[in-house]
Amino acid sequence: MWIAELSRQTDVPVATIKYYLREGLLHAGEAVGATRARYDETHVRRLRLIRALVEAGGLSLARVRNVLAEVDEETREMHEVLGAAHGALIPSDLTTTEESRGRVDELVAEQGWQVDSESPDRLLLANALDALEKVGYHLDDHLLKTYASAAVQVADAEVTSLPADDRQRTVEATVVVTALGGPVLLALRRLAQQSASAQRYGNPHRPACDTAEPAVRSTSQGVRSTG
Question: Is residue 177 a contact partner of residue 139, using CB atoms and an 8 Å limit?
Fold first, then answer.
């Protein structure tokens, strides 16, 4: 495909594509003349990955470059590449307390998770626990373990669904899911909370068709039956 078609498929302006090419974020197409080149599905995937990192992940182009370098690193084992890609998505200026780091280490050990002791995700979780403490909310161990159990189910399903026949596609898919999957999980959690709240406390805002109309029909039938 020509660059105009690549732009249409990815919804990335031609000028931006050319900029990514100049900066080395996007590999060159197949030259078919002095000023023209053809592009293929690999360019489509790479542009979508960059969009996910920039627009959803909120990364600077410098950090995007780091993520892409990890994605393209073929000398590492797959597990190492995925871990490095995850790390590149995490802020580098996280601050944590010793207490929260200890809780995270204890949780990881108790769950039997195979996680590197230097994983930046440990710091990310500890930072989140500290943020809750700062506003006066202590996330108790029972709820934390419940979150961990749910996370295991989600992670197992995600890893199982990754393409197994193409290393590059596997890494790209992992980065995209990591960058974009968070909002999906958040929305699902909120929907589930609404449902759980309605079941526990009642739902005073149910649609009228669920409550009022049957009552009216019942009343009218009763009037007719007594008439």
Answer: no
What mean pLDDT, rounded, does the chain reach?
Answer: 83
CA-atom Rg of the chain in angstroms: 25
Q: Are strands 30-31 and 37-38 parallel, antiparallel or unpaired?
A: antiparallel
User: What is the distance between the alpha carbons of residues 227 and 222, in angstroms, rounded to a whole number?
Assistant: 9
Residues 205-224: tens digit of each pLDDT = 665 545 444 444 444 344 44
- Quick one: tokens of 62? 């410098």
What is the H or E stretch that residue 132 is in? helix 120-134
Report the Cα–Cα distance between both ends of the chain, in Å, rounded.
Answer: 77
Residue 157 CA: distances (Å) to CA of 78, 116, 162, 203: 18, 21, 9, 32
- CB-neighbour burial class of residue 171 (10 A; exposed 0-12, middle 13-18, buried 19+): buried
Which candidate, 64, 65, 50, places its Cα nearest to that of 11?
50
